[in-house]
Design brief:
396 residues; 13% strand; 12 strands; alpha/beta; 13 helices; 3-stranded antiparallel β-sheet; 7-stranded mixed β-sheet
């Protein structure tokens, strides 16, 4: 028999499958499960966006686009970033359309990292950053954040982890899994460290549109940061276009973006044409629907977080995205055991916090990008589940 032990590269063998997908897969085939594990809006793409895509298909617009994306889409993205976030980019030279935001992160790290470079990642944080950095030969250095500081990245915590091998800082605010938001005042000392230590900053801002009660501030807008920051955005979350796979990267450093484009040319070639047409239609005709979805998310946020507290789970106030990240430490269960029991005994799917890195242990992530009815049903089930746990503990 042929030996296949050396067919798979060591770096691939060493990474673990996504903890989010693990719990998602466990729910498949299960009856009557309320799925609050995956961060996917429950809204349909607005009708004008669907209609634009259908027209494009009927007109035969299904061929390749320029590698960097449709020029009219890059122009629209540039205008949108200027109007919404006060970020100015040349659409011809400083905007790249990608296959979702995940490809943009991958391109950025493959462009910047050589083996041994350190990649600083606030934790708890999105599960994909560390594996991608590892595949590039980078050394992942987690920068711990905590509920005591609203899961914000502090300059003090960052300074403790910087070494002479530090090269890239990945930030994701509003944050997944915590819903944390950074203000200009929060960013200023972090930006000063990035400049002092000549760090490249990859800023994943896919949840930028989903902030509640305050305006999103990009680290790229601070003094000295535009040239060293790659801003990543997309249409999956705020525009409910998860399956269309369209994201974008924008950077004031043309050399960095040009290098990413070279990799993109040989791997993805271009983002899907129907998805790009739909993304353009979203920016032209979907902004009102986006704001309506945001308002509903905010209503769900306040209801669900309040409900978690009422049933006995302490939960920091998420100010962005669509996740609640309560502590389950009071139950005496570790987060993975709690999540498994919650799924098995109560029929509510969530993600254990430890899959998001340091600071995640003792927490679980719920997505409130689900219907209000399902969120209310989930709270009822969680409350009954916690009561059974308390009775069981008292009986021992």
């Amino acid at each position: 028999m042929t030996s296949t032990s050396n067919w798979i590269a060591p770096r691939v063998r060493e990474i673990q499958p996504s903890g989010i997908r693990k719990f998602f897969d466990q729910t498949q085939g299960c009856a009557d499960v309320i799925r609050l594990g995956v961060g996917e809006p429950d809204f349909s793409v607005p009708e004008p966006v669907r209609a634009a895509c259908i027209r494009a298909l009927q007109d035969g617009l299904t061929g390749y686009t320029p590698n960097a994306g449709l020029p009219e889409l890059r122009e629209a993205i540039s205008e949108y970033m200027q109007g919404s976030f006060r970020l100015t980019y040349d659409p011809a030279r400083e905007v790249l359309v990608t296959v979702g935001t995940s490809e943009a992160v991958d391109l950025a790290l493959r462009t910047c990292i050589v083996p041994g470079d350190e990649v600083l990642i606030p934790a708890p944080g999105y599960v994909a950053y560390a594996p991608i950095a590892h595949l590039c030969g980078g050394k992942v250095v987690e920068v711990e954040t905590s509920a005591a500081h609203k899961f914000k990245l502090t300059a003090e915590a960052l300074a403790r982890r910087i070494t002479d091998r530090s090269k890239v800082l990945i930030v994701n605010y509003p944050g997944n899994p915590t819903g944390a938001v950074m203000t200009k005042e929060d960013w200023l000392p972090v930006a000063a460290l990035a400049v002092k230590h000549n760090l490249i900053v990859i800023s994943d801002e896919v949840y930028a549109e989903l902030t509640y009660g305050k305006r999103h501030v990009s680290i790229a807008s601070l003094p000295g940061m535009r040239e060293r920051t790659l801003v990543i955005g997309g249409f999956s979350k705020a525009f409910a276009m998860t399956g269309w796979r369209v994201g974008y990267a924008a950077c004031g450093n043309h050399d960095l973006l040009s290098a990413m484009l070279k990799i993109h040319q040989y791997t993805a070639m271009s983002a899907p044409t129907p998805g790009q047409i739909a993304a353009l239609a979203s920016l032209q005709h979907g902004l009102e629907a986006k704001e309506a979805m945001k308002e509903i998310f905010d209503q769900r946020r306040r209801m669900f977080v309040s409900g978690l507290r009422e049933v006995g789970l302490s939960c920091h106030e998420p100010e962005g995205a669509f996740y609640a990240f309560p502590s389950v430490a009071s139950t005496g269960q570790d987060c993975e055991a709690f999540a498994e029991r919650l799924l098995r005994e109560a029929g509510v799917a969530a993600v254990p916090g430890r899959v998001f890195g340091k600071g995640g242990e003792g927490h679980i992530r719920f997505s409130y990008a689900a219907s209000t009815e399902n969120l209310e049903r989930a709270l009822e089930r969680i409350g009954r589940f916690l009561e059974r746990m308390r009775v069981g503990v008292e009986a021992i």
